[in-house]
Amino acid sequence: MKRVSTGITGMDELIQGGFPERTVNLITSPSGGGKTLFTLQYIYNGAKDYDEPGIFITLEESRESIDRVTKNFGMDIAKYEQDGKLFIIDLGEMRKEVKIDEEISSGMISFEALEEALSSIIKLSKAKRLALDSLTAVGLSYALSSEMRQAMFRFVNFLRVKDVTSLLITESVEGTPGLTRYGVEQYIADSLIVVGLDSIRGELRRTICVRKMRFTKHDTSIHPFLIMDDGIEISPKEKVF
Q1: How many CB atoms lie within 10 A of CB 125?
Q2: What's the pLDDT tens digit per position in 43-97?
Q3: Mind giving me the DSSP string for 120-150?
Q4: Nearest Cα to 23, choosing from 218, 177, 174?
Q5: Fewer CB within 10 A of the end CB, N or C, for the chain?
Q6: How far apart are CA 82 and CA 108, in angstroms?
Q7: Rounded Cα gap, residues 223 and 104, in angstroms
Q8: Could you tell me which residues are beta bridge partners of residue 203?
Q9: Coil, strand or helix: which one is 224?
Q10: Residue 28 forms beta bridges with which residues?
């Protein structure tokens, strides 16, 4: 099976060289865990190192905030945008693709509207990688949890039939036992990557664990997850107990 490298130092060693091609992958952590940086690096590394066009959709962070993050970690986003290899899309830009004015004005967007937008965006961009920040933000637009689950299931199946390898963000809620906000995301995705933010010897430390990955003999240990000057580094040979 063809693998799609994350390009993140140490990560690919945990998952047999990368994500299985055309799968839908999930990353979760509490607020401040580093999920957005992880997904940005996945998209950026694809354009820079593998000549694979990628789409990063932000539903929570502004474009200005994304630019600050990428600049801080030395990612030359503008170069690959100009080359047509990288696309960063926020709610304002989505207004150009589908008529979602009412949803935007309320700060929400549905999975159905995302599908409609992405159908044309993926085709036009010829993207091979896609990242969404985040499922949590989309889920808030549903009044009933049953409707949200059904819509999320349809959205994930929609991504599976596209020629993209997807990385979706969700979040865990501190003080609750679940790994994800809605408790269903991990069952419909092909993989679940958990970034922990734990108190160890009196200080907060980030950790990473691949809890699930279909089609892959993956490492299931907990490893250090470090945010360095040039981005994320994972230590595959070091374990956290």
Answers
A1: 19
A2: 999 999 999 999 999 988 888 999 999 999 999 999 999 999 999 998 655 555 5
A3: HHHHHHT-SEEEEE-HHHHHTT-SSHHHHHH
A4: 218
A5: C
A6: 29
A7: 39
A8: 200
A9: strand
A10: 170, 194
* Rounded CA separation 103/113 (Å): 9
Distance (Å) of CA 226 to CA 10, 36, 38, 113, 195: 11, 14, 11, 36, 11
Each residue's pLDDT tens digit, 109-167: 899 989 988 999 999 999 999 999 999 989 988 999 999 999 999 999 999 999 999 99
Handedness of CA 153, 159, 162, 163 (dihedral sign): negative
Contact 180, 28 (CB under 8 A): yes
Nearest-Å Rg of the Cα atoms of the chain is 17
**Least confident piece of the model among 28-37, 78-87, 173-182:** 173-182
**In sequence order, which residues have a C-beta less than 8 Å from that of residue 139 and are 6 or more positions away?**
148, 152, 181, 182
- All structural domains of the chain, each given as residue ranges with its CATH number in brackets, are 3-234 (3.40.50.300)
Taking the whole predicted model, whether its pTM rises above 0.90 is answered as yes
The three-state secondary structure class of 231 is strand
Identify the residue whose tokens are 């580093």: 34
Share of the chain above pLDDT 90, in %: 76
Strands 19-20 and 3-4, by their bridges, are antiparallel
